[in-house]
What does this fold into?
Amino acid sequence: MTARLADIAAQAGVSEATVSRVLNGKPGVAAATRQSVLAALDVLGYERPVRLRRHSAGLVGLITPELENPIFPALAQVVVQALTRQGYTPVLATQTPGGSTEDELTEMLVDRGVSGIIYVSGLHADTTADTRRYERLRGQGVPFVLVDGFSPAVAAPFISPDDRAAARLAVTHLVSLGHSRIGLALGPQRFVPVQRKIEGFVRAMQELLGLSAEKVTDGLVQHSLYTLEGGQAATAALLDRDCTAVICASDMMALGAVRAVRERGMDVPRDVSVVGFDDSPLIAFTDPPLTTIRKPVHAMGQAAVHTLLEEVGGTPAPHSEFVFMPELVVRGSTASSPGARPRP
It folds into this structure.
């Protein structure tokens, strides 16, 4: 092994330590130096390690969370269509509870020589996760783009909706209907989109209703899971605090909110207004049709593909965040606050 390292180092004109870093996929090696080492391997007749072999023509990985939330298949469809139009073959890898982890899926895709990877709502969105996994991937020469969730510690392009603006749109709509007891139901605190929605919610409640930040965060914010059951549980807690309107961080949670209201013998929107987030497929046909904040899925999916292919083509996009504006879609699940209606 030492003799081989010395041969490669001499051929490439670099140190043995640098050769070792390249062969082990370690970060901290310039792209030109990495290519010199790989060229030396080829010239000397050594077989490249699996992870360093030439990328399979046109394979691009897409790693998503579970597909039960319809917004993820919707985004995947946009990405798949955009990649296919550009002549690439998408490889969809889905995380499932008790199944493959993000790291395992990444390793599987890298072993198959994908040209790049798009991550949707991955560990990059979790503020407690170790971001060094992305440094290692960068060190292996695999381009990637991260969707939904920003981390300044990761040198990569990010694609995000404006979660702060989304919360403000929802609050503004409900305040215009006379609501003042507005609750926010969302997922665990550690996720970046959750933190941003809270920031937008608190600021809007301060500016539009004159409430203190402490009063909003302590009394009107309820964390749960991004599921129908999670939305139901969070809404039940907010109803106990006399909320007449509930903003949910996903359409699935909003459907749970409607169930929670009906379980108490009340009506949506006569007694309680509900706002979702995403504008998932078919959500316009629920009972009642759901007022929601439309996530710009098409624009985000197109941008993720375009940005990744720029990286694959050797013209990297800025390692920063591209933020897309959401849109309020008013349907039948919101109405005037019961206290704001004229009495007969």
